[in-house]
Amino acid sequence: MESALREQPLKNTKAAVDVDADVDKLTNSVDKLRLDLADLGYSTKGNKQTLQKRLKQAKKNNVGLVKNEKTENTESNEKEETSNKLVNSGFDCLFSFSSQKSLPSQPFDYYLFFDVEATCEKNNKNYPHEIIEFPVLLVEGESFEIVDQYRSYVKPSINPTLSEFCTTLTGISQETVDNSPDFIEVLNEFQQWMAKYSLFQDKSAIFVTDGPFDINKFIAKQCIHDKISVPTYFHRWVDIRRIYANFYRCRQENITGMLAALDMDFEGRAHSGLDDAKNVYNIAKRMRDKGCRFKKSTKFRTYLGRECLDLAFRLNGRFQQFNLPTNVHRDWVAIKLSNLLLQYPAGITEAIVLTELESQWTDIDKEYQNGTGTRYHSIDHIYNGSFSSDCILEVTIEKFYYIPGTCFTVLVVSDNTSIRKVELLLHQKYTFLLGNHVQTSSRPFLEKRKVKLAVVGVVVSKSSIESLSGSQPQDDEKMARVSKLPRIPPTEQLVFLLSATYDRAFVTSQFGSDCLSNLRASHTRRYKLWLKILHIDKAAHTSSAAAYGNNRGQYLKLYLCDTSDEGSGAILTLYDYQISLSSMLKKGDFIGLYHPGLIESSTESQTLGDGGVLLEYTNETVIFCMTEQDAEAAELTNLMKRYPSSDPSRSEKSASQAANSIVSQLSDLAGDSKDVMDCRMYKKRVYIKNLRSHMINITLFGRIVAMANNNPYRGGKGDQPMDRYAIRLVDETAQIDVTLWEAVGHRARRLREGHYVLITGLSTSKVYKDSNGQTTWYVNGSTSCGTEIINVSTIQCLLASSCFRKIVGLNTISNYEQCHVCATVTGWYISDENGERRLWEGEIKEDGTVIEDKNSGVRLSHTKCYGHKSCLRSVTVADEGQLPYCSFCACSVYNQQDLVRIFAGELDEEGAVLYWTLDDGTGEVVFAEAGQDISAEFLNSTASQFLTLGIKGQLQALDSVVGKEYWMSMNQV
Ligand code: AMP
Ligand code: MG
């Protein structure tokens, strides 16, 4: 308090140097009034007159006790001001102690004051700046004292010699930088230093800089030089200039400006990074002592143009990952990434990607923990009457009692957002849980049980609060306002949560005996199943045929598997109002399914392959749910294990595993070598060589080297054969064939050899013995595992990323079976089957005459080649009157609409071929045979559009491509 009183009114030095004195007198004096008021802890809102009045009053009161925390808040009004005055005038003695203590708590545990120096040249803004000094002061949020510092000079690589201007400006000598580590080394070391304090991990932290440049410009440029993404800890920071201008309600100033206004001196040498940082800290400390809170103020935004993006896989192997949000998994990133690329068709910058993904992840992180995409409501919502029809609560049962004379049990539930409680009438089907036989390790099942439920309505009950409040201490004031207690009618949509600590015995006793493979549809026998959720599909509208004769509008499928050796699958279908149950569950959860309904047979069973079981949620079904982590902790992930541990196929497998050293690197994956290995949360890349049997949720990234025609599988239980496409995928470690079933296979039909794809949600089968007695297993992709395919080759932005493809010179392509080039189209021509160049109708011959004779020229419109619309591969028209047949999809093409005309090898009956000539400056020109894809890409039109252009238009279109540069992948033919 003492120091606050002694504080001098702020001096504004700026007025003296400004040119337009008249104008500035006004603004500056307003600025000054505001500075003074802020300094005394008063509101800085209002016009000059108000400010003057307020300041006068303030000085009269002559007390600066209550720090004006509201200064940042533009909402501050007269009321607050008066209350400040009251406090100031009357109760200063009383409040003096507490006000001193009540300096605002800072929102971050630590602040990193940061000011880089970089290479530069006089008057050159576009200089490729490289960081040469990287100093950080670590300040503890609570005490706001400096607790440590990190400082390193950095050796620049692009311009290793410092300009004289730079040395003079920063005081950093050539010798200093010559003997310093490079940026990546410094960053890695700095991260280790941050890790000592658990910054950005257990402890929250944020950088504080003077203006946006240190991060937005210098860090951003440096990261691009070094081919790393800007680390996430640099994505937000506190810009002291903005905080200062907000706090004192004045214009932004640089360090010297701020110091002058605050009547402080610069300590040390200006443009020495560490000293700059120290002075920024001095300013911040002063503001903090006046009650300023340091909230993040600026988001990362790049000043640089479009940059190659490397999200899934880092470019610079030397850079050590730090602070990757721990639960973000690759599938999620991959899928979001492809969505983003669709949203920004013109290309996206790394900064857009990272900020978008980061903010989406913050939203979704909770969802991943709680369920899929659920915003849980709180009990307060019920009291406010603001709950909607899809209101879902997560609550704990405080107590339960019978309503005498009825068959109703009332659960009194609470959540941690409110001290209020709500009554819930228990649905009949759950009453068995009240019995003594349903015990957890020590207490009745319902006691302190966490449940998630969909609220179907609210009735206000008359029962008094007191009778329910029990021994819990109550906040009288709040409770008094509540005279009525809401009661929730019985709900069918309720999930009981199980914990590893209490419920192991419950699970083993209830769910230990039934297994999917021995289910028989019967109306007498009731089953209790322990299943893992593999995938939760999106809700879809029922077609009338699939609606089982009921008037069901929507359905949603949960794909489940048991934990037996067979890993048998099941689908639980939820209809309409039941769909809300799915939002209480998430992929990976284990569920205890009590009395599910069994659907006897349906064509849908095909989607599960052999022996999938179809289940329904009936009015007898009860769901218990345990998170994956808890199930692992309680060793309940393989409750159905059927095989003896001496199973020969098992030991065989482990032997082969031991031999494969790469596989052993995966030992940190969830599940030991006997379990199904779930890669969902595995944060490293899984390579083809890492694969083994019994894995799920695999994401592979690789290049397609072969695609097989549809080979429908007829061995399933259904009558219909299942479509089955195979692709051969290659990555750095190996190649493997992946079978894509049904819908996923159909989606893959437009892929081509040479495409790079990211495939998520693959699984590997159990071990089979093939006809030669060899053991083998298969990689499968299907909707039931949640497989998605992202064609990376068609994502423009990624195309340019050198981590995905190595660009080679045209002169070296003969060394590669498949490669990527970046070349300019220098021309096109048509040749016949033998490679003889052919002249076009309309083409000008060497002698200057135009070919008009339709017989000596070839016409593109002569093409007789048709393609199957869904796969763009050519179809064969067997005989007149017969249906065209697509051998790739193994089906007849029924409709004319399913046919498209495509560019193909043959341009007319004689088999003319369109060639493009390319040049990439490596001295050679090659001719590329144009497949329909290339031509469509080059010409930016489909074949059928192209054919409608007429000969002149076609020539123009072809010529317009000449001179353009393309990234291409090439196959040796
Ligand atoms: P500062 O934090 O103000 O010391 O500036 C950081 C970096 O910005 C310096 O290391 C220089 O690379 C660059 N810089 C600052 N002032 C100038 C200037 N007047 N001319 C050129 N570059 C400058
Ligand atoms: Mg500096």
List keywords for this structure.
single chain; binds magnesium ion; about 950 residues; 7-stranded mixed beta sheet; 27 helices; binds adenosine monophosphate; flat; 3-5_Exoribonuclease; RNA-mediated gene silencing; 3'-5'-RNA exonuclease activity; 6 domains; alpha+beta; Nucleotidyltransferase, domain 5; 41 strands; 15-stranded mixed beta sheet; nuclease; hydrolase
Structural notes for this entry:
- The protein is an alpha+beta fold.
- It folds into six domains: 2-101, no CATH class; 110-299, Nucleotidyltransferase, domain 5 (2-Layer Sandwich); 306-370; 510-576 and 598-617 and 633-657, no CATH class; 677-796, Beta Barrel (OB fold (Dihydrolipoamide Acetyltransferase, E2P)), CATH 2.40.50.140; 807-971, OB fold (Dihydrolipoamide Acetyltransferase, E2P), CATH 2.40.50.
- α3 (21-40) packs parallel to α4 (48-61).
- The longest helix has 21 residues, at 350-370.
- The structure holds adenosine monophosphate and magnesium ion.
- Magnesium ion binds next to α13.
